[in-house]
Design a protein that fits this description.
This protein is an alpha/beta fold. It has 24 helices and 13 strands. Strands 3-2-1-4-5-6-7 form a seven-stranded parallel beta sheet, with helices on one face. Strands 10-9-8-11-12-13 form a six-stranded parallel beta sheet, sandwiched between helices.
Length: 568
């Protein structure tokens, strides 16, 4: 079955074994097109002219990549591959560089070429899975990640990616996802030292607490955007804040976060044992995971239980599956009482209003006029990540378009190439004229915000809703039609919309989703009123009341600490 899948993928990407063999027979040096001025290009050409073997070209490319010169690095990797089509390291480097540039088809070609030579290469299987996932093919990505784990059962990255792909795959049940998390955590084989529970702590329920936040996303990332204002509003008399960063590179957001922390620790180069010892020496009372099984997560650190209380929050949409983590912060919308507990190893801590705390970007433009008033037709839009779009979702969107004559749909953040071709084919199979569909890639931030001026109604994704995207879309004056399911990732939209008094935008099945979108599209006066009043609605909601949210969060911390003290 996997061989057949490889063959199909090679056919789609035009990178089958014959093409690889053709490259072996005709060694071509690709034309160099580095960014920058002519002198930079001349310098690169001169340096490459002295490199006569693939290994030297690959090494030079790695140097350019570390310096941030991506165009030059790509030229070096391409020459290395041309000189030796079987040079695995150069193909990996080239594939990863292309993937980072959102050139998903080209990246997949490199991983498939590796698999043509080494069919059981677990790294290539994993990276191909990522390319498939980013192109919206979650089910096929699942098969690649499982194959990678079959070759290397302790491959943690492939296990993490498998969990993400399953989260995005329609038809995967909450029970299935929970069981897979338990299996993955078991595969990780993370255990703590014998003295993990030996805490030299005064069980004083009212003393100042040391809170440690651990994340690989203390940078320009949604987790940091949500957390920034919380850190700024913590009660310094009652809480001392430590941040443990597992990311190697700082940016402007990192600098801002550092200003709000009492102590900042870089742990990206520390082993789990070393990081755990650092936490113990800092005397942390409550250690908070903000990454889970995502890139930059440090669950191995949490497995060592360096703090008496450990909580997961914000950065991961499922259970960690790790018994060493005591609690998970959520709300009653995302995780209704009596219905969610069975899908977590952690005890759920439900905040009173909402688990989200939104702070708009300061450079977001003003809300624009309702486009439908001047267009004479309604424009629907999707601003979510391409990996959240699947064939079931496009079928729902097609029903919306059929219900609203002359309407159009704009979908942003899509890779070029076969991802877009596949989506257009799906709409055509639903009898939707493709002239009504506009597909866009990643846009510079300012252009992305201005795109909202062209959209009347946003359509949320499922089974994985938008989070930050939904908040941003509402702030830009565009109402969001969401779908509420039976687990956290499919209830995030409900949580956000309920907290801004827009529960009437939430559907519980396909019929409701289509009906809400159609009803809104037919009532332009209501749509215009919504658009003009959305920012004030958000400002008056718990979603933007950071002081209120932080007090609720601190109350949750205090409660679990008091419970721990009583247990002593």
């Amino acid at each position: 079955m996997l061989k057949r899948l490889f063959a199909e993928l090679r056919g789609r990407l035009k990178s089958d074994a014959a093409r690889v063999e053709d490259r072996r027979r005709h060694v071509l040096v690709p034309e160099l097109q580095p960014d920058g001025d002519d002198s930079a290009g001349d310098d690169l050409s001169a340096r490459l002219s002295t490199q006569r073997d693939a290994t030297s070209c690959n090494a030079l490319g790695e140097r350019y990549r570390k310096e941030g010169a991506r165009a030059e690095a790509r030229a070096c990797f391409e020459r290395a591959v041309a000189l030796d089509p079987d040079h695995i390291a150069a193909r990996f480097n080239l594939g990863n560089l292309l993937y980072g540039a959102n050139k998903i088809d080209a990246a997949a070609e490199q991983y498939l070429a590796i698999l043509a030579v080494q069919p059981n290469n677990h790294n290539a299987l994993n990276n191909l899975g990522l390319a498939l996932l980013q192109s919206g093919q979650a089910a096929e990505a699942v098969r690649m990640f499982r194959k990678a784990l079959g070759e290397h059962p302790e491959f943690e990255e492939a296990g993490n990616n498998l969990l993400l792909a399953l989260t995005l795959t329609p038809g995967v049940t909450a029970e299935d996802l929970f069981e897979e998390h338990l299996r993955h955590t078991s595969r990780m084989n993370v255990t703590g030292p014998a003295h993990a529970g030996d805490y030299q702590k005064s069980p004083d329920p009212r003393r100042q607490l040391r809170i440690g936040y651990v994340s690989g996303d203390f940078k320009n990332h949604p987790v940091a955007w949500f957390l920034e204002q919380v850190l700024a509003h913590h009660d310094v008399r009652r809480f001392e804040i430590f941040c443990y960063s597992n990311w190697y590179k700082a940016d402007a957001v990192t600098t801002t976060l550092k200003q709000h922390a009492d102590a900042w620790r870089q742990i990206n180069e520390l082993t789990d044992d070393m990081a755990a010892e650092r936490v113990r020496r800092d005397g942390i009372d409550i250690l908070v995971d903000l990454s889970g099984h995502t890139n930059g997560g440090r669950l191995g650190l949490f497995a060592r239980k360096p703090a008496p209380l450990q909580i997961t929050y914000l950065g991961y949409a499922n259970t960690t599956g790790l018994s060493a983590i005591d609690y998970r912060i959520t709300d009653a919308y995302c995780d209704p009482a009596g219905k969610s507990e069975g899908y977590y190893v952690e005890t759920l801590l439900r905040l009173p209003d909402c688990m989200w705390c939104y702070h708009p970007h300061k450079n977001m433009p003003d809300v624009g006029a309702l486009p439908a008033m001047s267009n004479g037709y309604v424009v629907f839009g999707s601003f979510n990540n391409a990996m959240k779009i699947n064939s079931e979702l496009t079928a729902w969107w097609s029903r919306v378009l059929r219900m609203v004559p002359n309407s159009k749909l704009v979908i942003a953040c899509l890779p070029e190439g076969r991802t877009r071709e596949r989506l257009l084919q799906e709409f055509m199979s639903q009898a939707i004229d493709t002239s009504r569909i506009e597909l866009l890639g990643r846009l510079p931030m300012r252009e992305f915000w201005r795109l909202h001026h062209r959209v009347d109604i946003a359509l949320d994704s499922f089974p994985c809703n938008g989070g930050t995207t939904t908040c941003d879309t509402l702030w830009m004056g565009v109402p969001v039609v969401s779908w509420c399911g039976d687990r956290f990732v499919s209830r995030a939209g409900y949580s956000i919309l309920a907290n801004v008094a827009m529960e009437d935008m939430v559907a519980y099945n396909a019929e409701g989703y289509v009906a809400i979108a159609g009803s809104l599209a037919r009532d332009l006066s209501r749509l215009e009123k919504l658009r003009l009043g959305l920012r004030e609605r958000l400002r008056a909601s718990p979603l933007l009341d950071v002081a209120r949210f932080t007090r609720h969060l601190e109350s949750a911390y205090r409660k679990v600490w008091e419970d721990w003290c009583r247990s002593r």
